[in-house]
Amino acid sequence: MPVVLPKRRHLALARTPIASAVLLALASPALMAQDTATLGEVIVTAQKREQSLQDVPISIKALGEEQLDELNIQNFKEYVQFLPTVTTAATDGAGSGFSAVYMRGIATGGDGQATTSQPSVGMYLDEQPITTIQGNLDVHLYDIARVEALAGPQGTLYGASSQAGTIRIITNKPDPSGYDASFALEGNYVDMEEPGYVAEGMVNLPLGETAAIRLVGWVKHEAGWIDNVAATRLYEGDPTTDADDFLADNSEYAEENYNEIDTAGMRAALRVELGENWAVTPSLMYQRQDQEGSWADDLLDEPIPGLNGYVVPGDQNVAHYRAEYTDDEWYQMGLTVEGSIGDWDVVYSGNFLDRDVQGEFDYSEYSYFYNVAYTYFTSLYPNNAGEIIDPSMSFSNDDQYKKTSHEIRISSPQENRLRGLLGFFYQKQEHDFYQEFGRLKGLADRRVPNGNDPNATNTFPGVVYLNSMDREDTDQAVFATLSFDITDDLEVSVGGRYFEPEVTVKGFFGFGLGLNPYQAPTGPGEPGAVENGGEGAFDPLSPWWSSTGEWRCPSQADYRGGKSPCQNVDKGIKESDSVYRVNLTWNATESSMFYATWSEGYRPGGVQRDPRAGNYLSDFLTNYELGWKTRFADDRLQFNGAIFLDEWDDIQVSLQGENGITQVANGPSAEVQGAEVTLDWLPTENFRLGASIAYYDTELKDDYCGIDTQDIDGDDNRTECITLPDGTPVVDAPAGTALPLTPDFKGTLIGRYTFPTGNWESYVQGALSYQTEASSTLPVAEAALLGDIPSSTMVDLAYGLGNDKYNFEIFLSNATDEDAPLSVNSDCSTGVCGVQPWGVLRRPRTIGLRFSQDF
Asked: Which CATH class is domain 20-509+568-701+736-854?
């Protein structure tokens, strides 16, 4: 829960975190003098209506506008640091926009691929759901009212992908009551080597007495700190054919501090009040992020014995052999209509999101370690002259997302003893993706041969393997809540949501389906229907025999650079189900509230990328929770918390299927027990402390096995255990194994002390965040190869001087230079590439100056 400044003086945009230990020392008895300051109220809209946070029967952590400013929170990684209920894992080496989000330990790893599960945490920008399959939108935070983290299932009000919780970014709205403006300038120095900067501004312009427009803009440069060091790597040739070795050299791409991000964006909103009862608010937000380099550090400290010429760099260094970048551009348009019909409130929200992501990453670890383990790449892909080329690979992606949503809510007067809400929701998500795995240097003039036509030329130049698919997710739902005051102090509330999700996937999944395009058979199994689906097979022009008895292959005229692979996937799944919530709230006193909740959340099922694999169905989370919201000492101390038990059934688990293709299956069940607590204390008018902690105990309730990829028993469950000839079961993670990615304990401590300096006011601030270690993935053997995500401690410090109009600040973030990775992964299957894990790092120690002004 955010701490609100004492109601005496507002510091203009006082940002960023002095050490908590210093501030604790300042809490001497002399500072305990009586005064009239209080913590005040924080208004949230977690239940889709305005309420004091202390009245909401949900475990919720809210970072209000003032606290976002004080902590200098500008992006996703920074606000997650101060939300103990939330953890994150990078789905690739990008620095922004590709993080999987988890709450309450509901995680198995392996998420974030284009045809895997939907996220278990819903992300919202105002009324707009902004959750995308491969990573969250990293919205730059300026002129933001608050960030709300709602822990536990929120399925009845927020639907799919709010299974374990919901994160909501609420912007400040246009205000017709008066003119307002502000700006902030920041310069910083990262790792004492590279400069960065931020420039932000906002203006609120009344347009008469009933309308206003609010304009916000920002530009930001994040300096790099990871070096791509010069290195060589020896690929051995096939000794059975006397193939030559190849020594790869990355000098073309070697560069110091090569990971940088440039961000620019704007937000505009117009509010028009139509009479006394209605208001219309159209809005537009645009942002572009251009990233260079990688935020992933090679984690090994010593060379790997027996690997010829392989160089393992030191801390904050990598040895990458291909260019790396990501361009992420998106815009969001929204329309909110609010009004009343008689005593009933009506809200309509319509939104559209368009996101275009293009990028390329080094993938040479894949080619190198597969060269060591299986295939000699030096002889596999010669150029047109038959010469050995550099086998170093890259991975490129072109992802286009579109999301449209409509929601209308009707609610009865809140003062009624019996009151309710009825809502209707529709959403359509489209993800059109084209991904080239293994683009080789030196083959721009030639398509890699597929075995059927060794003389094939430039249909897909230099590409070893690709995916090209269109995924579409639609969701229709009806939801309702009904509340009744049993007494003046006791309320019962019930809610439900009926939903109908549908998922379709069409396109080319990376492999031919065993049909030879150069000798057309008359049907499946006839002469010419040779197998072409083995390890490394690639035939994007191969037609396939459809279930309607016809050859299927689209024309080459089409959507990506004039070339389109044949469609060999056309699948869909449609479900219908419902989730419910029951809550009992007791207002024991004017300053204490207790609640008990039973609630459910869900994720829709989906379709596999590989058409030979079965579909997966929705998984469900059931939550049993007891919580409290309390105030003491005349609202100078607030103590809130919850204890809970979550049961997770039919878990959607990602696993390696045939040909190394990631697929999803409904697996075992799991259980999470935990506690979440926040404490905010105002000992004096000038000094306050805030602490938040989350503790989770997670475990599988059944054995997990990801080997039954053929569904040998015919029940469409591909994570059952098979046995060896001696009767020994093959178990990837036995019952009792902790769920990965989430630490058992995560906590934050923030202290702030203000004191007069002449006619100005100074402050010192310290912020501490700590988390224990966590497993990197669910399968026990793979987790042992990758190693754990280590524990970490972050300390942010700040000193500032300001008044009602100006504020100057010097800050030091990550003061102890913590370099523990946020997540750990590898470039290919753990059994092959797990000997060289990588981890996405936090920004190292950064010092900066910031000036802001309110008008």
From this structure: mainly beta
